[in-house]
Each structure stands twice: as C-alpha cells, then as structure tokens.
Amino acid sequence: MEWNFIIIAIGIAVAGYFIGDGLKNFKNPNAKSIMDSLEEDDEHELIRESDVHYFMGISKEDAKTLIKEHSDVPHIIINSKVYYPKAKLRKWLLSVGE
Q1: Which residues constitute the domain of residue 41?
Q2: What DSSP character marks residue 77?
Q3: What is the pTM of this model?
Q4: Do 42 and 85 have their domain in common?
Q5: In what helix (H) or strand (E) does residue 46 lie, and over which residues does it extend?
Q6: Do 68 and 27 lie in a common domain?
Q7: Do 80 and 42 share a structural domain?
C-alpha cells in the first residue's frame, strides 16, 4: 500500500516538472526542449576508435572493414589516436545508407 503512494507521488512530481517546463516555454515556441539540449551535447562528443562499432551497431571486424573501404569517414587524430566526432559520424552514416 505504501509503494502505491510513493509511485503516485513520483508520477505527480514528474508530470509537474514537464507541465512547468512546457508553461515556461509557452510564449516561446522556438525554445529548445530537454531532448534538443541533450542532442546538442553530442555535437562535440568524440568516440574512440575502439568503441566506434558500438555506435554503428555492428561488429568490430565490420566496422574496421567499413572504415578501410571508405576513406571519407570523418575522423580526428590526436596524439596518434583516432577519434570520430559523434554528430559528423551520424550524418556520414546516414548519407552512406542512401
């Protein structure tokens, strides 16, 4: 019985937060939402070469083959280590798929 009240209280608090956030931006429809600000953080995030296959959703061997076949993959070399900008890599993957 106590858990039901706790769950209801959490639900009311979350609903209040989202309603308040929506009212805050009521007169400014072009304001950034929480999801937009999270996506904006990805713009400057770098992915290590060893982790790029997780982002692509493929095996390590497939990622290495894809990178070797396509020399135009956006990447940065820092201290002889290869990094991939997350936002640019996402755009590149979408353009390769077309």
Answers
A1: 33-98
A2: E
A3: 0.56
A4: yes
A5: strand 46-48
A6: no
A7: yes
